[in-house]
Design a protein that fits this description.
- Helices cover 20% and strands 0% of the residues.
- The chain has 249 residues and is mainly alpha-helical.
- The longest helix is centred in the N-terminal third of the chain and has 15 residues.
- The N and C termini lie far apart (41 Å).
């Protein structure tokens, strides 16, 4: 009976105690598109270094975030979702948490651990996930337009049906990711890794594909051409990691 009220109070407390950072992660010049600022490689390296230098997420707030992720979703009030918009969750541990349908618009999740997290149908519009780890995360049908995923780890992530229009994905790792029916129009995909990823059903344009890194295992739409610079597949012994095991750092 009290579950919805407690979850709402938890979210309000986090939003109040960890408000949206007043200062952006990078200077305004570096936050622009690659053709207007530093070369994208330098920009991604600077982002990674800045994320690495962020302070740890407070232990008291981590306990609340963990409780939110472990809640019994069936007790949620119909039509009401977790409200964490613009919350500062940088370097928080949300691993395996249940955040289905959560409002994370403009939230700051730089360097956060979202491995195996459930974010189906979540709203992450303009959210900051630079350097975050999303191995095996579930993002079916999530909304991520203009999201920042520079240098993020999205290996074997479920991105079917997601909206990634205008997303910043420079230097992101999407090996083995499932991007079927995802919308990537206008996304910046410079230097992303797509080995063994599933890109069928018009998820990507030829121009975007040409700037990416993939191999013969990467599944692409029939109307596109496999870039000549993509490497050949490794040996048969190079299998996908076990979903129940923690991937290597």
């Amino acid at each position: 009976r009290l579950h919805p009220v407690i979850m709402e109070a938890f979210c309000a407390y986090i939003r109040e105690k960890r408000r949206k950072p007043a200062k952006p992660l990078l200077d305004e010049a570096d936050a622009k598109a690659p053709d207007k600022g530093a070369p994208w490689q330098e920009r991604v390296e600077k982002i990674k270094a800045t994320v690495e230098a962020l302070p740890p997420f407070p232990n008291d707030l981590q306990a609340i975030v963990t409780a939110l992720g472990r809640r019994t979703v069936a007790y949620d009030r119909p039509g009401i979702r977790l409200d964490l918009h613009e919350a500062d969750l940088r370097k928080a541990n949300l691993r395996g948490g249940h955040f289905e349908g959560a409002d994370l618009t403009r939230a700051h999740l730089e360097g956060a651990n979202l491995r195996h997290a459930h974010l189906e149908g979540a709203d992450l519009e303009q959210a900051h996930l630079e350097g975050a780890s999303l191995w095996f995360a579930h993002l079916y049908g999530a909304t991520l337009p203009n999201v920042h995923l520079e240098g993020a780890g999205l290996m074997y992530t479920h991105l079917e049906g997601t909206i990634l229009a205008g997303a910043y994905l420079e230097g992101a790792y999407l090996e083995g990711a499932d991007l079927r029916d995802a919308l990537l129009y206008g996304a910046i995909l410079l230097g992303i890794h797509l080995e063994c990823a599933d890109l069928r059903h018009r998820a990507i344009t030829q121009a975007q594909l040409d700037t990416a890194i993939g191999d013969e295992r990467t599944q692409i739409p029939d109307h596109l051409t496999r870039p000549a610079h993509w490497t050949k597949p490794p040996s048969d012994d190079d299998a996908a990691p076990d979903h129940d095991l923690d991937p290597p750092a």
